[in-house]
Amino acid sequence: MSDVIIQGPNVAHTHSAHGEHHGHEHHEQHFISKWIFSMDHKVIGKQFLITGIFWAVVGALMSVFFRLQLGFPDETFPIMEKFLGEWAKGGKLSAEFYYALVTMHGTILVFFVLTAGLSGTFANLLIPLQVGARDMASPFMNMLSYWFFFLASVVMFISLFVQTGPASGGWTTYPPLSALKEASMGSGLGMDLWLISMALFVVSSLLGGLNYISTILNMRTKGMTMTRMPLTIWALLFTAVLGVLSFPVLFSGFVLLIFDRNFGTSFYLSEIFIAGKALPHIGGSAILYQHLFWFLGHPEVYIIMLPGMGMASEVLSCHSRKPIFGYFAMIISLIGITVLAFLVWAHHMFVTGMSPFLGSIFVLLTLLIAVPSAVKVFNWLTTMWKGNIKFTVPMMFAIGFVSLFISGGLTGLFLGNSALDIHLHDTYFVVAHFHIVMGVSAFFGMFAGIYHWFPKMFGRFMNNTLGYIHFFLTFAGAYLIFWPMHYEGIAGMPRRYYDYTAWESFNQFESLNAFISIAAIIVFFAQLLFVVNFFVSIFRGRKCLVQNPWGSPSLEWTTPINPGHGNWEGEIPTVYRWPYDYKDDGHGNDFIPQTTPLREGEESH
Amino acid sequence: MSGFISIFLTCLVFFIIYQIAKASELAGILRGEEKTKAQTNRLMAWLLVVFFLLGLYGIWLCHDYLIDKMLPVSASDHGVQYDSMFNITLLVTGIVFFITQAALFWFAFRYQASENRKATFLAHNNKLEVIWTTIPAIAMALLVIVGLRNWGKMTSEAPKDAMVVEIVGKQFNWIIRYPGKDGVLGKKDFRMTNDADNVLGQDWKDKNNHDDVVLQNGELHLVKGKPVKLIIGSRDVIHDVGLAHFRMKMDAVPGIITTMWFTPTVSTNEMKEITGNPDFVYEISCDQMCGKGHYAMRGTVIVHTEAEFNAWMRMQQPYYAGDKATETTAPAQPEQKTDSVNAITMK
């Protein structure tokens, strides 16, 4: 193995001494150290992405199964028995497994796809490339971060196959339901595995997050001041800060739950009579868990949203050929969102019987988040205004991101206002709200990022036509699925129901549910189109022949088309200007790279 | 078999789409990359506009189709406030929605790339940014004021003359307890619970329990025009008393007592007329995931006139089965339990 695996910017000197030697070095790397236990941030990013795609397919397939049940409660689907066996005897999903699927769908999509798969991928890929570092602050910890995630994935995957089924108390796993084996089948071994997997996940997330923060703060190249960083980096920085400060609280909540489940403590349990007997637990509070959970749970929403916001900013600006509007306002609003994210968690708990006064404070702080969010939306719109917009596939997804963010964000004003939440809480209105804003919208941010940086990752392009088909099917599908759900929620239809046919108040939506299910299944297949496009393009995609295919001023496009470990051959470039200089460079180009020194008389931004 | 055929067909469709996509890419390159790019750009700009217009039409269609399926008029006074506040919020967000979405799609179309266009270098404009920070802030302040006023009313203390009813969730139904003639709910201790003759764990030594009426059929009987205060509890896991027609909801948490009060304003019979549905019934839905039977945890509310309610109440028997119950459970219970058991006893 090579002794020149570059560990940090201080090694740049060593590197230049070795000259071209570097380029060959890594071809000789062993397959295992190059692709499996890799310490190259780009490879780790790809590992996160591909694991994330695997989980996304699994999680989405689960939603197809339970949408079949919701849309067609009276029919049977023998094909489901092939997949699920005992759990779908005769092609009819059992209630227990329905709840298990709902729970796993949430857990997988929120944590494994939109946290690890999203910030794991892009923080790893973009941070060193865009701040001008050879790798992360600690490539070894970075590698551990992926492998802890991998372990978490393995444990979670195993939990799908245990006899009593995986966890089934909802992705929030509120005790006592999740704490008592008597309360639900899924609260047996499946729940223990869920907790172990999530604990490993927290470790992974902390290892990654600390690395991202220290890399951004300490390893920027010469001239790369904080205010010359692309907004992607700002967004990923705050994402990591959110995770580092809130995941430990979730972890503590999980540890207490493990104790309650296995060691007879009563942190969350009090005065319970179940399965014919009274339990000895007294004095605990089930609400305590909700506070601990949502102290992460709410920042988690922004952990999911911020990377998408950062990437959409970058993509909108680049493909509009115009600087991002209000760069500083964008940073300040990111700070505002990050701070407020820690102060609003109890808005998930308005109807738990909490003090109404406390509720009022959380209403105020929650609606305050609308201000920085609105600023961001207006700035994105103004970025497009008077631009010269190129509708590449990433640009389409970025536009879709903004549209969905507006739609999903506005419904938050209903739910954040406690007097309205008292009716809308735990109805389909909530399902519609968060699926649009932190589900589909975050996915659009992610897709924009994948299509945009695919040439950087693999030196090839993805197929455009498939990309456009993928975009329109997903964009239209998302609205067709989730827009009507608002109506169901306003009518009070509760979420997490296996069957509505016995309810006088909710069974009028039967045909609508069938419609939503069909749309969801079509959208699922549209995503497979993306998956095929992604994997085929890695090997067969049109080759990227230029260094900077999108004409972007930021630093990652100054690396070779297929950068080796260490990213730049020769010295790391020096940065002279901000990353949004979309102006005439005097040679017929409409942008000036960050590495171009300021011209005479030109003012830095 | 049909499963495999459909899988095969899906794969085939995929393969065809993929081949078309690949061919179109190649054709594009053959025709000249720049020209194809310009054409695609125009096409996409148009498609976005079409998408926006179809979207507006879809919103109208969706509304038209679903509006008849929504809830009837609110059956409680709190619900009336809820409805008006909902409409205010809908108006505010609706305006913002249409302005911003229209701007998004219009800008996309209007500023599509062309050879003659050059993007304007516009990095920031303090005046604009201050304006669009201030306007949302003011709008939010208004929504917060409206919201907190209603929230204060809904969560205020119940009126003194409110009737008190206890509702307890268990996997998977609701148990309802009326205080009986003395108007006082007797003390409870969860350790005295048994499914045979003491489903709520009432302490029979407390005389107040002796006239309490317990309904295990999940029927909550209320009086039109009379405020009701629900004392909400749970025997096992967290449940939630969801009263969609009254626009109210509150969790039932084991070990904690929550409350909620409102005044029913429309009787069940009146609602049958309003909705034109002779089978109409107010339902209590469990709105907090509570296990495999969550979706079937259904209770009903019957709103009577005062006279009807009194007549119904006279028919009910106290749950207390006599002295034998006291004898069987008493020895198991030491006289003094000073810990948090007291916390759940109530007067």
Account of the 3D structure:
The complex is a heterodimer of chains A (605) and B (347). In chain A, 62% of the residues lie in helices and 1% in strands. Chain A is an all-alpha fold and 605 residues long. Chain A has one domain: Cytochrome C Oxidase, Chain A. In chain A, strands 1-2 form a two-stranded antiparallel ribbon. The N terminus of chain A is likely disordered. Chain B is of the alpha+beta class and 347 residues long. Chain B has a domain of 182 residues: Sandwich (Immunoglobulin-like). Chain B has a 5-stranded mixed sheet with strand order 3-2-1-5-8, with no helix packed on it. Chain B has a 5-stranded mixed sheet with strand order 4-10-9-6-7. In chain B, a hairpin with a 4-residue loop joins β6 and β7. In chain B, α2 runs antiparallel to α3 and α3 packs antiparallel against α4. The longest helix of chain B is centred in the N-terminal third of the chain and has 34 residues. Chain B is elongated and about 95 Å long. The chains are: A mainly alpha (605), B alpha+beta (347).
Average of pLDDT of chain A: 92
Q: Number of helical runs of chain A?
A: 18
CATH superfamily placement of chain A: Cytochrome c oxidase-like, subunit I domain
Instruction: State the low-pLDDT regions of chain B, or none.
Output: 324-347
What's the rounded overall pLDDT mean of chain B? Answer: 88
Derived structural class of chain B: alpha+beta
Strand order of the largest sheet of chain A: 1-2
End-to-end distance of chain B, in Å? 65 Å
User: Which outline of chain B best applies?
Assistant: elongated
What are the secondary-structure elements of chain B, in order, as H or E?
Answer: HHHHEEEEEEEEHEEHHH
Radius of gyration of chain B: 31 Å
Q: Percent of residues of chain A in beta strands?
A: under 5%
- Multimerization state: heterodimer
